[in-house]
Every structure is written in structure tokens, then in C-alpha cells.
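Hi all, posting the design record for the shared folder.

TITLE: backbone redesign
STEP: 1 of 1
STRUCTURE INPUT:
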């Protein structure tokens, strides 16, 4: 059998080229989910081909790398954290709709790192860099076109104001571009260092190549500015400062060209609107203007838009409190969406994103600290420090691209910075683990010519069978999400039978996913309410119980269970108590979430238990002092009880805090 080295090279190049591009309109999450499944698929193929190569003695199983110990320690910490997780399913597969960050995704990235380390050499390093730059170029061109309105009618977001291209979010695009701006500058200087031969027929093309890389750098940077990502621009500036500081003293002949590169970037920064430029201009203006105090007659709560920085500080406080409760192994890999509610600060309720679900701590380091504890955080930092140390200290081995370790240092540093103000996604995680392979010294693959034994040949068969099984599962899981998305669509249109058909398909293709099981419970409860048939009631109860059994810490599942049993209580009132119990359990898991207490009040009021609803509305207001819906509910209750003073007070606060104005509250207040 021939060596499979070339197919492995092809698959790696396909991985770095296509992953940033992939997004669909048919999945429940358009960007991250299809990217992650693509990584699963190619990892399976690459691993299969590599194992066949090993069996056929065409390649060694692995090569020693400088990250062997850091990676082993980090992986062990994640396995232990998954084992002790409050939700092992989520810890293994990752938070649904993201997937990246779960133990399965980590296994893929580590396999890719170790396998690439076996096959990488100076020529393949060049190809990986070139294919990655070409991919980033196409992504950037689309981002620039997006800024000028090419797809403005496709998205709810104002993509012209803040572009996200094929990455799905401006900060994610910015983090991706930051990785490759140092590489485009690096390739610019590498092209100039070529000893030009004027007799060469390609002389003209070779001479123009450096300036193409210069244009490429400018395109990347323009796209970055169009994201208006403060963290991305800061990360880019710091990483380029690192590159400039070392290159300026190391490459004396190219100082003028280095200054030219950076001058062009500075000019672009001044010409194109971006948050760093705006902050600087605002700072200059405020130094020359005497502030005038104007009384704000409009209640601030009506126009409150909390800055992302202030929200992050609150989330980080809750995350650190969570780490204090679970200091060793955390609450489990990727469980932040559930465990954050346990320590969620009350201050979060007064922000403009008070009812958003935070599935990440918006700081990769604090996220690891909260979900994987001190052990996971320490080993993660050890991995990072090892990469930084080796990129600074490793000698340039023969055959290595000159100065490549410096570029990796700058590029890798940009990921570390953007991860501080956000979190990693599929594309950035992929390069987070693949960039260090560029630091490995070139090692020739020794191909043995010895005859392969029959036993070794026989081992190929089970490997291929396992590979086909994993590929089948990956495809089934991907199709299951498409079916789930269709189920959501038809459910929202009240076409429950069609929604049920798609929900059953998604469950059949991926029977262990609790989100699909929960969807079945909801649809069956709605059909039961419409038909009154016992078989649908039983199905709704069974699926709801199974959902909670698999994922007991998921607050959203408890909320949905309460809603499902509320539907069933329309058939038989005995189910109402189960609905209240489910919401009470949710409240115990999220003691600072005012929306749960408000929902409890609503449920009780629906059952004409008005007096019992009042304390829950009051609790909601205690947690969120500007909760206009809770004030309005209390106002109507007190009005019905003819307690006019309390009715006036609560209706007035409803009007004060509601935005836009609650006209019904105004009418009721006037009637008093």
C-alpha cells in the first residue's frame, strides 16, 4: 500500500482553508456548529490515514514535541473535570450550538497537533501558511464587501456597521484576522529576501510578489477596522508591537520597509472609524472642554445600555465566586451556562443584558478557572507559557523558515489577548493548537521498506470500520441538528405534527442529546393539550423526565418542564403542582434570576392563586428594582383588590421603568 502522506497533507490544507468559510442557513446555529462538525469529520479522516500509515510503517506513530508534557497534563485535567462535572454530557460534547470547548473538541485539536507534528517540514509549513493566508484573504474580501452592503438584507444585525463575514460575530472575525496579519508581514519580508535573478523568465512576477503581500496586510487590517472590535484592534496592535520591536533590531537592512508597513497601518487607523481612534479623539476633546452638568429628566433605566466592559466585570465576579465554591476541578468543562446562575451577582439584573444566557465567562482564563478549577486553569496556563517560552528560546533549526518563531509568538499572543476579553471559537481554537507545530524543528519521515506482516495488514480493517462508524455518527449528528431546526420552525408556526416528525428524526439520529428529548416533551405536551389523548400525555411526561435525568443542572430544561406541565394542567389540574415544583427547582438553581420568580407569579396568577403570586412578584422586584413587568402585575392585582394606594404606586413605577411606555398602565393610573 502506498504512503498516505499526501492525502494527509491535503486534508490539513483543506482544514485550515475551509474551516473559516463554513456556515449554513439550515442549522440551529449557522456558524460555529457546522464548523465544528467539519473539524470532527476531517480529524477522523486524518487520524484514520495516519494510523494506516503507522501500520504500514510509512510513518512513526508520533514524534516528541516540546508540548508533550503540558498537553498531557492539560488533557488529564479536562478528563477529570468532565468526570466530576455537574453535566457530563455537556462537558464531553460541549455546550449545544457551540460545541467548541467540550472534551470531544479538545481530543480533536490534540490529535491534529500530534499528527501534524509527525508530517510537518519546512515545505509543508509554507503551504499551511499560504493556504491559511489565502483563506483569510477571501474572508476579508467578503468582510469588506459586507461593509458596503453586499448582504445587508440577509441578517438582522447591522453588518455594514460591524462586519463579521463568515465567522458570525465581529469579535470572532477580528480574533481570526489578528492571527494572520503578522504572517502576511512575515511573507512580505521573506519575499524580499529572495535573491532575484533577472535572467529568470518569472523575474517580473517574483519582483511584484512582496507588494502583493503588502496589499494583503492592508486588506486584513481594513477588514479588522471594519469589525470595530476594540479587543481585536488592541490585540493586533500589541502583537504587531512585539513583532516590530524584535524585527527592527534583528533585520537592519529592512528597517525602512518595516516602518513603511507600520506607517500604512497607522494611516488606515486614522482614516477609518474605529473604537480606538474614537476613544483617543474623545479623550483629547474632553481635556479642552469644561463639562456642563445637565439634569437628566428621563429615568436612566429607560435608556440604559450597559457597556460591555461593565457587564464583563459583573460576569467575571460571578465566575470567580463560582471558582471559590469549586476550587479544585470546577463545575465541569463547558458548564458555565448552568453554574453561573448559582453565583450570578444581583447587579447583573440592572444591566441591559440582564436576561441574556451567558454560556461563557467572556474571558477564556476565568472561564477555565470557574469550570475546570485550579487544576484545569494551571495546566492551561502551563501550556500557554510553554508555547511562549519555546517561541522565544527555541533555536532556528536547519530548514526552518527564518524568523518563523517570532511570527508565531506575535500571532499566538494575539489569540491570548482576544481570549482575555472574549472566548475562543472553532477557528481560533484550531489555530491555537496548530500554530505551535510551526515551532517544531523539521524532521524527515523515515519510510521503512520492510515487508508488512499479515497481522499488521489485518489491523487496517478494524481501523477503517471504526472510522466509517465515526464518520456516519458525525453526519447523523449534523443532519439531526438540521431536523431540530426544522422542528423549531414548525413548532413556532403551531404546526405540531410536522414539528413532531422532525423532532423524532433528530432524536433518532442523536438519541443521547437532551435538547432533542426536551423538544419532544414540549411538542407532545402541546399536542396533548389540543387532543386530550393520554398517549401524548404519557410521552410528554416520559421525555420531560428523561431530559431532567440527563441534564439536571440545566435551568432552561427546568423552565421548559414547568411550561410543558402547565400545558398538561389544561387537561388535568393535578399537573399544575408539578409545574410549580419545576419552577421552584429552577429558582433554587438560579436564586438571583428575577425572571423565574416573575414566572412563578404568572403561573400562580393563571391558576387564580393571586395572593400566592404576590410574594414572587415582590421577590422579582427585590432582585431587579426596575422590573416594570413585575410592577405592572402587582399594580393590576392591587387594583383588583381595591387597594388604590398600592395600585397607584406600582402602576407609576411601571410607567417610570417601562420602555417604550406602557400605555395600559397609564390608562389604569388615570382611571384611579
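Okay, here is what came back for every position:
SEQUENCE:
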Amino acid at each position: 500500500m502506498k504512503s498516505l502522506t499526501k492525502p494527509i497533507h491535503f486534508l490539513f490544507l483543506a482544514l485550515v482553508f475551509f474551516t473559516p468559510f463554513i456556515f449554513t442557513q439550515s442549522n440551529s446555529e449557522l456558524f460555529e456548529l457546522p464548523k465544528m462538525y467539519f473539524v470532527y469529520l476531517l480529524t477522523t479522516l486524518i487520524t484514520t490515514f495516519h494510523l494506516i500509515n503507522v501500520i504500514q510503517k510509512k510513518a512513526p506513530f508520533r514524534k516528541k514535541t516540546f508540548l508533550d508534557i503540558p498537553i498531557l497534563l492539560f488533557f488529564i485535567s479536562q478528563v477529570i473535570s468532565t468526570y466530576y462535572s455537574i453535566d457530563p454530557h455537556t462537558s464531553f460534547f460541549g455546550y449545544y450550538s457551540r460545541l467548541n470547548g467540550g472534551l470531544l473538541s479538545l481530543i480533536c485539536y490534540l490529535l491534529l497537533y500530534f499528527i501534524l507534528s509527525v508530517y510537518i517540514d519546512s515545505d509543508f509549513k509554507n503551504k499551511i501558511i499560504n493556504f491559511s493566508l489565502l483563506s483569510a484573504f477571501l474572508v476579508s474580501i467578503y468582510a469588506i464587501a459586507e461593509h458596503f452592503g453586499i448582504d445587508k438584507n440577509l441578517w438582522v444585525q447591522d453588518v455594514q456597521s460591524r462586519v463579521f463575514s463568515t465567522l458570525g460575530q465581529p469579535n470572532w472575525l477580528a480574533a481570526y484576522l489578528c492571527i494572520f496579519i503578522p504572517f502576511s508581514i512575515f511573507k512580505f519580508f521573506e519575499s524580499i529576501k529572495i535573491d532575484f535573478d533577472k535572467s529568470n523568465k518569472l523575474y517580473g512576477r517574483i519582483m511584484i510578489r512582496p507588494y502583493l503581500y503588502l496589499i494583503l496586510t492592508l486588506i486584513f487590517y481594513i477588514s479588522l477596522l471594519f469589525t470595530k472590535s476594540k479587543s481585536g484592534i488592541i490585540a493586533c496592535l500589541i502583537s504587531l508591537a512585539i513583532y516590530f520591536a524584535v524585527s527592527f533590531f534583528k533585520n537592519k537592512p529592512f528597517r525602512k520597509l518595516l516602518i513603511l508597513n507600520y506607517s500604512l497601518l497607522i494611516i488606515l487607523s486614522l482614516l477609518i472609524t474605529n473604537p480606538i481612534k474614537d476613544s483617543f479623539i474623545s479623550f483629547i476633546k474632553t481635556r479642552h472642554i469644561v463639562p456642563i452638568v445637565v439634569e437628566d429628566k428621563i429615568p436612566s433605566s429607560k435608556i440604559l445600555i450597559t457597556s460591555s466592559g461593565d457587564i464583563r466585570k459583573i460576569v467575571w465576579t460571578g465566575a470567580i465566586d463560582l471558582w471559590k465554591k469549586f476550587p479544585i476541578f470546577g463545575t465541569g468543562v463547558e458548564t458555565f451556562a448552568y453554574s453561573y446562575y448559582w453565583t450570578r451577582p444581583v447587579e447583573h439584573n440592572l444591566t441591559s443584558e440582564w436576561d441574556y444566557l451567558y454560556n461563557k465567562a467572556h474571558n477564556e482564563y476565568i472561564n477555565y478557572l470557574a469550570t475546570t478549577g485550579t487544576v484545569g486553569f494551571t495546566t492551561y496556563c502551563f501550556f500557554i507559557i510553554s508555547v511562549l517560552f519555546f517561541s522565544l528560546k527555541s533555536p532556528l533549526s536547519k530548514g526552518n523558515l527564518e524568523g518563523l518563531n517570532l511570527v508565531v509568538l506575535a500571532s499566538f499572543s494575539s489569540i491570548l489577548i482576544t481570549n482575555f476579553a472574549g472566548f475562543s471559537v472553532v477557528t481560533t481554537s484550531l489555530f491555537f493548537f496548530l500554530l505551535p507545530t510551526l515551532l517544531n524543528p523539521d524532521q524527515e519521515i523515515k519510510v521503512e521498506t520492510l515487508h508488512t506482516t499479515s497481522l499488521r495488514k489485518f489491523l487496517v480493517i478494524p481501523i477503517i470500520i471504526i472510522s466509517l462508524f465515526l464518520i456516519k455518527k458525525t453526519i447523523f449528528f449534523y443532519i439531526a441538528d438540521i431536523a431540530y431546526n426544522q422542528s423549531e420552525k414548525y413548532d413556532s408556526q403551531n404546526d405540531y405534527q410536522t414539528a413532531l416528525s422532525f423532532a423524532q428524526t433528530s432524536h433518532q439520529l442523536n438519541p443521547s442529546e437532551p435538547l432533542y428529548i426536551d423538544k419532544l416533551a414540549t411538542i407532545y405536551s402541546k399536542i396533548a393539550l389540543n387532543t386530550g389523548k393520554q398517549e401524548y400525555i404519557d410521552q410528554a411526561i416520559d421525555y420531560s423526565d428523561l431530559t431532567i435525568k440527563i441534564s439536571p443542572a440545566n435551568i432552561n430544561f427546568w423552565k421548559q418542564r414547568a411550561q410543558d406541565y402547565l400545558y398538561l394542567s389544561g387537561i388535568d389540574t393535578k399537573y399544575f403542582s408539578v409545574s410549580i415544583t419545576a419552577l421552584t427547582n429552577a429558582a433554587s438553581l438560579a436564586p438571583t434570576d428575577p425572571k423565574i420568580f416573575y414566572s412563578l407569579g404568572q403561573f400562580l396568577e393563571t391558576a387564580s392563586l393571586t395572593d400566592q403570586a404576590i410574594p414572587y412578584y415582590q421577590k422579582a422586584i427585590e432582585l431587579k428594582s426596575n422590573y416594570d413587568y413585575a410592577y405592572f402585575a402587582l399594580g393590576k392585582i392591587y387594583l383588583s383588590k381595591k387597594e388604590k394606594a398600592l395600585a397607584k404606586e406600582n402602576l407609576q413605577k411601571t410607567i417610570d421603568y417601562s420602555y417604550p411606555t406602557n400605555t395600559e398602565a397609564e390608562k389604569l393610573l388615570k382611571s384611579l
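COMMENT: The mean pLDDT is 91.
Let me know if anyone wants the other runs.
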